[in-house]
Structures are given as C-alpha cells and as structure tokens.
Amino acid sequence: MKVPKELKYTREHEWVRLDDNVVTIGVTDYAQSEMGDVVFVELPEVGSTKSAGDQLAVVESVKAVSDVFSPVSGTVESVNESLEDTPELINDDCYGEGWIARIKIADSAELDELMSAEEYEEYTAE
User: Fold this and answer.
1) How do residues 67-101 score in pLDDT, each as one tens digit?
2) Residue 115 has what DSSP assignment?
3) Containing structural domain, residue 38
4) φ and ψ at 63, to 5 degrees?
5) Is residue 102 part of a domain?
6) Whole-angstrom Cα distance, residue 51 to residue 36?
7) Nearest CA to 20 among 101, 103, 125?
8) Distance (Å, rounded) from C-alpha 101 to C-alpha 118?
9) pTM
C-alpha cells in the first residue's frame, strides 16, 4: 500500500495535498484497493461550497458505492473531468491522475485535524 509522506489523510480514506491555499483531494491507495474496479465517479459541482465532512463525490465500483467526504471547508475550484470517461484512473493512479477535486480552503487550520502518513499507516493497520 502506497502512502506518500507529503500528503495528509482522513479516517474516511481521503488524501489531501495543499498548494497555495488550494487542496487537491482523492481517495487513498488503501481505499481504491478495498473498493475494487472503479466504474463511475459522480463529481461535485465547480463553485459549490463544502464544509469539512460534507459529501464531496460518489465513487461506484464493482463492489460498492462509496461516498467521498470533503476533508476541509471551502469552494470547489475544479474537478477531474477525466474521471467521467476513465474512472479507472482512481485504481491506476490514485495519487496522481486519479485525483477527484480541488478546493480553495477556507481555514487552513482544518489541515491540523488530518492524519500524517505515519498516523494513517497505523490507522489502516488496525
């Protein structure tokens, strides 16, 4: 299982990368492996406002339908439209081409609530 050290993580298996007040969000390698082959992604609407914990997206796989939650509060700046035609990017490259959305963060202090890579590895090992 890949857990890049530079990212932050949630208990719901989302990852977060901060770049200049904008966070990129996706699902972790652990999550995509548990879901199986991803066949559909319902993306959020650009311009919509999310609070931390709100539903951000829906990922449908051969095994289940899973909600993706927003790890932070803010406004959806962009979505990965590539997932509409090739949802399997989440399986193939969850930390790269398989990202889901970018949110302009309202309060960067919310990032302090997220887990480090080490904490996430311990959490998934339980």
Assistant:
1) 999 999 999 999 999 999 999 999 999 999 999 99
2) B
3) 8-107
4) -95, -35
5) yes
6) 28
7) 103
8) 24
9) 0.95
Number of domain units in the chain: 1
Task: Give me the helices (H) in the chain, please.
Answer: 29-35, 82-85, 89-92, 117-125
Token reading at 118: 């080490």
Mean pLDDT, the chain, rounded, equals 97
Domain CATH code at residue 75: 2.40.50.100
HSE at residue 27, side-chain half, CA atoms within 13 A, is 28
Residue 1 pLDDT = 87
Tokens of 20: 């200049």
For residue 114, is it within any domain? no
Give tens-digit pLDDT for 22-43.
Answer: 999 999 999 999 999 999 999 9
Given a contact cutoff of 8 angstroms between Cβ atoms, the answer to whether 92 and 98 are in contact is yes
Which 8-state DSSP code applies to residue 113? G
Kind and range of the H or E run holding 8 = strand 8-9
